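Now for today's protein:

——
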Amino acid sequence: MNPTDRIVRILYVDGAGLLASDTYGRVHLLDENLRLVASSPFVREGRPLYGLTAADGWVIGKDRMGAVFRWSLDTLDLVDRLDPATVCDRSALLPREEPSPCSSRGIGVWRDRVFVTSGYHRQMLVLDLHTFEVLEIRPNICGDSPMEWACTEHPTRHAVSDKHGNLRFGSFDDGAFPELVKLDDGNIHRVRYDARHDRFWATQDFGEGDNADVANGVVVVSPTGEKEAELLFARDDVEFVAFSPDRTRAYAGGFDGELHIFDNTRRALRVERTVTGFPHQLSDLTVGHGGQVYVLCQDGTIVELDAAGDFVRDTGHRRQAVWDVQPSREDARTLYCATDSGVTVARVEDSAAGPMIRVEAEHTTGWGFTRRVAPLAGGCVGVTRDQVVFRADRDGTVRWHLRLPDLLHTVAVSPDGTRALVATNGGAVELDTADGTRLTALDVDGLPVWATAYLPDGDRVLITRNGVIAVLDSGDASVRWRFDQGEYPKRAWVQDGRLYVVGDGGLKEIEVGVGVAARWSRLLSNTVENAVVGDGLVVASSYGMQLAAYDHASVTFTGLLEDLPDYPKALAMVRDADDTPHLLVGCRTGLLSLYRLDPRPNPRRGRPLFRKLRDHWLPRRPVPYTLRHHDHPDGDDAGPSRDEPAHDGTRAAVGAPA
């Protein structure tokens, strides 16, 4: 038996085993065979537990709203919980300030003291490790940005990172961190001390300077704060860096889904092996006392490797998520859902209690999770995590599929249904939807393209990772318009003649040829993942587990729903028999939630905008995947030299197609 809820953080503890925290605020202990040994009690206010550390027989955790917990390491009994709303210095709060959601990881432990930012990000709690007494509430070391990581591995030199790309040096002895180094334009998720070479390694989310939102990786900094070197290997967030017990190897990876194994016997940064083919993006890694490597995938799967990156075992986690929901071209009440398994076809139907979602079919592809779908006549085009583009009919029949060389992000279908435009880390590729033939490759300054769309006249829209929008002519691909909106995109679409882009900075409505006409982002605490526009409303979702609504015409805020039961990814506006709009939300656990949208919300009189109607969960499925190794000879860090299977994790019940 393994934890059924998605794991979000792992930590190996000598003498105990592998600690794992989940999305509902529980902590689990797994043995050396990845079997569940113990679990902490359920917490009524359970939220994703991103901060996790252990010291002196205690486990300390922090959830996404800033609640701080303490468990006994021996039993995983919950001993203490500090409430994020009330444990604070009220004299230092803003008027009507409330705790803000944030998935920060930073917890520092030094000399029996715990240092952690609270739900009020400008404040830091200092706690007694053994009594959990609040000894002090002081200003946050990192200002208004939550502490993202605290490294106390150096005997006298401590390092603290934040979500604004700053690395600070100082000491928890006196709480002073006066020296600052700017390493990234985004998060620095992990800072580790390399005792072999007396230096610190830090991760990057965005990159910095000319490389911001273009390339990122790891940066090495001396104890005195000088930037020594960097190696840029990623096109997405780098989530972790860790060392083998003897410091001869370092491990780094993240949302690109690749694990990079560094040879740390010499001072120069060099990747000796890259492991790919994991079932999902990589979100955490920890190393055991014997050198065993535990990799956490974002779907909750834990994969154990040996020190060289060879497969040992995994947790056999069953997963499901809904990444995208799009109505069919023939009938808006028929929906194509991009899922971890493949594509689910669902129908909006009416019942005595209002509309409901009925699943018609679940089509498994075996090509990794489906990131996006775009409808066309009789079916849809989809893009998958395993870099496959496919066209499938409504009954699941695959007409064609094509594997592309780079990681895929989004797909759009032309208004006439004859072309599909795929966004990849290597640019954009346009395909013939009849047979998958490659029509053309499109490029914007050699940058990763993260979102695409078609204008009503068939012109192509490409949006790069660093926010450049290029509109290319439908015929000769000449640039009709170029606009640098400066923030990375997650999705884009065209509606009523306007281009809509979600991502960093909120939802933007863009008038092609002119610029940004409107923006919606108020009260959303993180990247805007998705949005829908209709019936005079704009509804946006964020990685902060929020839904926010705005009036489209006036751009004014009209409603907020926080503390959702899961992370919202897919949004669609659906209608009942009376043509009343409802919001369908697809989430990480395969949850499809249906909300009635009240056209006259008045929270003071008990009429909220969002009113939950019903929930439906898609079944969880085993994970098919195959790990591969790419070895890099000395002096060749640019690309793979060898490609060999490392492990075929395909379950017998889920056969991957040839």
User: Anything to note?
Assistant: The longest strand covers residues 354-364.
